[in-house]
Specification:
single chain, about 110 residues, alpha+beta, five-stranded mixed β-sheet, 5 strands, about 30% helix
Length: about 110
């Protein structure tokens, strides 16, 4: 093993509403994110993961599949959002405005 083949320890994480999987690996320091995910076996455990569609991050920061990681990093596979957060906030604001107008008209 050469000095370039130094092993580092990383985690691959995927979470569902009722289930979270954390896989710890010791990998070559030159291994990219996609290879690490493939080596973890998580793609076989969760066939719904599509690396072309799911976003990937390291400690909540988006990374590309060809990125390399550091010792102790946590590679996170994100699920697609079920609803757009901006749309949810907009609807809440509209509802609050309607309720405020209704309360104001009832107070008269």
């Amino acid at each position: 093993m050469s000095s370039n083949d130094k092993l580092i320890h990383v985690e691959v994480v995927y979470a569902l509403p009722n289930n979270q999987r954390v896989i710890k690996l010791a990998i070559n320091s030159e291994t990219d994110v996609q290879e690490i995910i493939e080596q973890s076996g998580i793609l076989a455990m969760f066939p719904e993961i599509d690396l072309k569609k799911n976003k990937i991050g390291v400690y909540s920061r988006n990374v590309k599949l060809n990125a390399t990681v550091h010792d102790g990093d946590r590679i996170e596979i994100y699920r697609p959002l079920l609803a757009d957060p901006k749309e949810i906030r907009r609807k809440r604001a509209e509802q609050a405005k309607k309720e405020a107008l209704k309360a104001k008209s009832e107070a008269k």
